[in-house]
What we know:
The protein is an alpha+beta fold.
Amino acid sequence: MLFYSLVRKYGPVKPQVSDYPTGNKRLNLVTDIGVPFATATMDTSIKLKHNEVLIKDSDENQGIVDYLVSQGIVSPTGETVIQGACTAKLCILH
């Protein structure tokens, strides 16, 4: 999985939560010294619940959902949302 290999190469990352302009949650991953590493989420015009996030788990983010679950950061709901050409997994943010 691509994402796991990047974490192994560059070191541990931690979550940083903020809001998109739509009010949905944005989940970034940063290094221990605060350097941006990855944006795990994508935004949508759909209003999500306060603890829900959409995570793109393909292309450059391949394997990111498994990583976030293993770290106790999110739990997948089993639902997906299609946004343009991307399919994202709906997850609960802890």
